[in-house]
Specification:
This protein has helices spanning about 1-5, 10-20, 20-30, 50-55, 65-70, 105-115, 135-140, 155-165, and strands at about 40, 55-60, 75-80, 90-95, 115-130, 165-175, 190, 200-205. By secondary structure, the chain is of the alpha/beta class. Strands 3-2-1-4-5-8-6-7 form an 8-stranded mixed beta sheet. It is globular.
């Protein structure tokens, strides 16, 4: 599956231009959390979110995607999230934005993020909620970037927080409309995780 991200990285990146209101809606939910200090994005991709949110560093396994992220001003490293190439207590916060769906061992990744975060430190996890219009849309597609993705319920992320040393703090949600109607305007972001297709959950070390 990772070969798709390597070979079709430009197609992946252009999705954000074609769906700008969806992207801006997701950013609105992410910005509900205050991000200060040194930050790391897990699965930085082409750097769209890091650039918009001011996240200075990121890791990914796709060389081509990392090149675009670097061009956007992100300091990048080619690495697996299960073995982060950083010392203990390095970052003030970390973010995993839809990349959870592609991780082989989410438990190990959360433990690694916990290791490299300072205390207190914040982990943001943005997911496409499994039982949502956008989740259903991606799960029904037999080709594309999400064909082998695993989708999660917010409660599963909270459970991962608790099992890896984090304390669940809050969640915000957006994308209340389905894929056919979502890219007509920027949607609101409200607290909770029960209705929106895109949910951001925060856990504190």
């Amino acid at each position: 599956m990772m070969d798709v991200f390597e070979s079709d990285y430009e197609k992946y990146d252009s999705w954000y231009d074609r769906n700008k209101f969806v992207f801006e809606s997701e950013l609105k939910a992410l910005r509900k959390f205050e991000l200060k200090g040194r930050g790391l994005e897990i699965g930085v991709g082409t750097g769209r979110f890091s650039q918009a949110l001011g996240i200075g560093e990121g890791i990914d396994t796709s060389k081509n995607m990392l090149k675009l992220a670097q061009d956007r001003g992100v300091k990048v490293k080619k690495a697996y999230a299960e073995s982060l190439p950083y010392e203990n207590n390095t970052f003030d916060y970390a973010a995993s934005i839809t990349s959870l769906s592609f991780l082989k061992n989410p438990f190990l990744v959360f433990k690694e993020v916990h290791r490299v975060l300072k205390s207190p430190g914040l982990l943001l996890v943005g997911i496409i909620r499994k039982d949502s219009p956008w989740g259903d849309y991606h799960m029904k597609k037999e080709t594309g970037f999400f064909q082998e993705a695993r989708f999660f319920y917010p409660e599963q992320v909270i459970d991962l927080f608790e099992k890896t040393g984090f304390t669940y703090k809050a969640a915000y949600q957006t994308l209340f409309k389905g894929p056919k109607d979502s890219d007509t305007n920027v949607e609101i972001a409200v607290e909770g995780y029960d209705k929106g297709s895109f949910v951001v959950l925060g856990g504190e070390k």
